[in-house]
Amino acid sequence: MECDLLLSGGRVVTVDGRRSVYEPGSVAITGNRIAAVGPAAETDAAWQAARTVDCRGRAVVPGFTDGHSHLFQSLARGLGEGLSIWPWLCEFMWPYSIAVTPDDARVAATLGAVEALRSGITTVIDNHYAPTDPETVLAVAAAVESAGLRGAVARGMIGHRTPVALARGLPPALFRYSVAEELELTRECMRRRPPGSTVEIWPAPLNLSYVDQDLVRGAAALAAEFGTRWHTHCSEGAKDPESYLEAYGIRPVEWLAAEGLLDERTTLAHAVWLDDAEIRRIGERRAGVAHNPVSNAYLASGVMRLRELREAGAVVALGTDGPSAGHRQDMFEVMKQTLFGQRQHTLDPAAARCEEALELATREGARYAGTGAGILTAGAPADLAVVALDRPHQVPLHRTVSALVYASRGSDVELTVVDGRVVFEDGRCVLVDEEALLAEAQERSEQLVSRAGFGGLTRPWNH
Ligand SMILES: [Zn+2]
Questions:
Q1: 417 dihedral zone (left: phi>0; alpha: psi -120 to 50; beta)
Q2: Which residue from 30, 155, 337, 372 has the fewest beta carbons nearer than 10 Å?
C-alpha cells in the first residue's frame, strides 16, 4: 500500500481507546488522515511511502490542543507582573487591548501560531478580543491558518456596560458595540468563514460575570445555529461568581444550566471558582472546561478542581491562556503544572498522573474542540508531533510518557504535522518567514508599549 508520509521507528504513544504504545512503532499518513499505526516492523513492511522520516530516538504523539489562548497578546509578553487577575486586566491588559491595532493583532497572532507549532500544538482555540471588527477577526483567523494551525478564533464580545462591568471598573473604551451589534458582527464572521474551515469562528461572550445575559443567550444560539462551539471566561477569579450572585441572585454556571445553555457546545475557560452543584451541572451536560494552570499560578487565581470535574463527566482540555498570562505557549509546561498544581493543593502525590496530563493535552483537548484529532489511530486527522527524547535532560529514558510530561519541553519538538502537512521541521515553521516576523513583532511591541503608556513596566530591575 502507498502512503504520503511514514514516521518510522519512534516511540509511538497513540492515546487511543486502548492507550496503545508501540516501541518501536510507525505511523503512515495519506492525505490529511492517518492511514495506519502499529509496530514498526509490520507497518514499515506494509507501506510504501513517498517520504519516510526516521523517528528512532523520538516520541511520536498526537498534536496538542491549546484549549484557551489569546494570540493577540503575544506583543505583551514579559510585562505586567505581580498582579492578580483583576488589577492585571484593569491596569495592564485592558489598556493593551485598547492600544492594539489590526496589524498588531495579525502579527501577534502569527507569532503565537509559530510558537505553538514549534512546541507541537496543532489546534488552538484563540479567544481574540482586540480589535474585534470583522476584518481583523478574519485576518487573525487567516494568519493562524496560513501558519499551518487548526482551530478556532473565538470572537470576544463585550456588548454594553452592565452594572457588574460598571461596578468592577472596566474602562468605557471597551464598550464599542451593543449586544445586537456584537452578535451580528460575529454572525458575519461565521458566515464568511463557515464551520468546517480549518480555523473556524466561534462566538465568545468575553466573561460570564460581566457581560449581559442576552449576549450569552445569543452566543449559544449562534453556536447551535451554525454547529460550532462557543467559548467564555468562567469564574477565573474568586470575585467572579460573587459579583454575579450579588447582581442576579444566582451563580453563573447555575444560571447557564437553568437557561439550558450548558451542553457539549459550551467551552468554559478556567472554571476555578465553582461550587459542588456547578461542577455537577457541567459534568451532567458534558460541557467543556479549559484548565490553564500556568496562568492560574502566575496570576494567583486558584486551583481548578480537576478530579471532581472529570469524575462528574466534564470534558477537560488544557490551555496556555496565551503568551501574556503564561509567557510561553508550551503544553509540556502546562501538563507538568497541571500535575504539580493538583498535588500542591491536595497534598496527594497521586492526585493526578503523567498519563492523565497527556490525555488532557491530546484526546480530551480534541474532544473539547470537536476536531476528531488528539489520537493516533487509522482514520483520525493527521495532526501529530515528533519529540526528541535523546537530549541530556531526557536521558536515561525508561518510560516515554514520564519523559514527555516531566522532562521534555516545547523546544524538544522536531516535527509538527497538521492536517497531513509538515508545518514545522528542521527548526523552522515552513509556511512563515520567521526572521521577518520576529523583527516585526519586536518593533510593533515597542511602539505599542509606548502608545499604551507602559514605559514604566520595562525597567530592567524592579525594586
Ligand atoms: Zn483568558
A1: beta
A2: 372
Among 124-133, 164-173, 175-184, name the one with the lowest average pLDDT.
164-173
For residue 321, how far is its CA from the centre of ligand 1 (angstroms)? Answer: 5
Q: Are 190 and 226 in contact (CB under 8 A)?
A: yes
CA of 295 relative to ligand 1 center, distance in Å:
9
CATH number of 2-62+374-429: 2.30.40.10, 3.90.20.10, 2.30.30.20, 2.40.128.110?
A: 2.30.40.10
How remote is the CA of residue 208 from the centroid of ligand 1, in Å? 12
Task: Give Cβ neighbours of residue 31 (< 8 Å, ≥ 6 apart).
Answer: 4, 382, 420
3-class DSSP state of 137? helix
Question: What is the pLDDT confidence band of residue 141, given thresholds at 50, 70 and 90?
Answer: very high
CATH superfamily assigned to domain 64-368: Metal-dependent hydrolases (3.20.20.140)
DSSP alpha helices (H): ranges in 305-451? 306-312, 322-325, 331-346, 354-359, 365-369, 400-402, 434-451
- Candidates 315, 302, 295; CA nearest to 274 is 302
196 C-beta neighbours (distance < 10 Å), count: 9
Is 2-62+374-429's fold the same as 64-368's? Answer: no
Cβ(294)–Cβ(86) below 8 Å: no
| Contact (CB, 8 A) for 230 and 287 | no
Assigned C-alpha cell, 285: 451536560
Domain boundaries, the chain: 2-62+374-429, 64-368
Selected residue with higher pLDDT from 14 and 169: 14
Helix, coil or strand: residue 7: strand
Q: How far is the CA of 284 from the centre of ligand 1 (A)?
A: 24
Q: Position 395: which residue type?
A: V
- Other C-beta atoms closer than 10 Å to the C-beta of 344 total 12
Taking the centre of ligand 1 as the mean of its atom positions, its distance from the CA of residue 270, in whole angstroms, is: 8
**DSSP E strand stretches across 40-108:** 48-54, 58-62, 64-69
C-alpha 41 to ligand 1 mean position (Å): 45
- The span from the CA of 373 to the CA of 418, in Å, is 10
Span from the CA of 233 to the centroid of ligand 1 (angstroms): 6
Distance from the alpha carbon of residue 102 to the mean position of ligand 1, in angstroms: 20
Amino acid (one-letter) located at 74: S
Ligand 1 midpoint to CA 152 (Å): 14
- Each residue of 229-254: pLDDT tens digit? 999 999 999 999 999 999 999 999 99
Contact 332, 410 (CB under 8 A): yes
